[in-house]
């Protein structure tokens, strides 16, 4: 029995950077399809029907899929970073071939059974018995395909397996018909994949029995599987981050021209529309996570499940909106665009630093930085995104006050350079994850709030001016409008002296009294009943306190 182990369904959230690229590739595919239909006539009833019927489903059948109602039109696999020879993608390509040809994996079968374990090895033994029963009773053939007579043969299987096998195999047949047998599969990469040097059936690792009759021996296009070297007309399958953003903006401009024929849009306008569309993807992630945490589809057999989609209608609704009014929604988009720019640049800069390094220490440090940044991004920052990123930015710019010139305020709290050089540079060096914005030192004595406050001027007079401006802003925001978290002792800043601890001019907001909580639940600094001052602390000293 040659069953593959990888499920035909998957529900893992990849790294933020990879997901950001994957999400934008999905958006690009949606816009290509919408634009094609719109050019036939946006006022036609068929256009509205098209928008109502078509949608994108992320991270289920594939990295994403385009569906018409419940049927899958195309499946899309996305690889952001990595090598780009055909052989570098053998596992992914083989998995696609197995799925296209209707091979049911071990993993999917096991999802339909509950295995109990009293000692180590029990589950593996039960799984082996199940697989033996499937092959012995000829439910699958030697290639792992469902036998054409499996519905008859299953009647002779032990009754303890029979009903679950029938449900599993029936669901898989239906899914194969909806998703794999008729859909087209596209393989998207940041760089163009090189065509194989030898004929595909001769490549070790490729299931040769599925590719024995290729019309072109170095292409899978006759099986409706396309890589970038196939040069399909529908999509550009090799798009770098820069090319992808350019393609998105071109498609948005083309659609805006059709939807708003008498309006001219600036470059900033187009970027804001792109940001709004990317927000739909973020919202979809939130819905998917709620879907998973709430176990909302656990009552549905595994292979019958679907995940929340983004309908094409929602995408066009965003493009029909006007972002000319500088209201809260407008400024939220501006701030989000600037933060995304900073975050993306931070990841790119870290990669550029080590991409040619052969040092294990450099690579380990890079992996730590990425893991830390993405932990904070996914577990903290994304709680505010996409609709409330201003609130998050005010917490890392707690000294910024709303001035008469509202544009200056929003530009200040979303200035990409300081987000990178002060906040993100500090966050990536923290070794202790807290799951919240504030951090405690190693012995839990003090609490720290990271910020974008910068006292790094080498001119002492200017540094003192920076300190006074920050103190005044904190004082103006103090009280109900304070963006300093309760129980914070130190605001982390970038300063000229690694030992700097500077009074911030505000009192600590203490929520916990020592007599209200057990001693073990209260930080030492919170037990002090007298008024305690909050201080600025240089990021290097703060890292020493937090990391130990």
TrEMBL record:
Residues 243-494 form the ABC-three component systems C-terminal domain. InterPro entries: ABC-3C_CTD1 (IPR046920). This is ABC-three component systems C-terminal domain-containing protein. It comes from Paraglaciecola algarum.
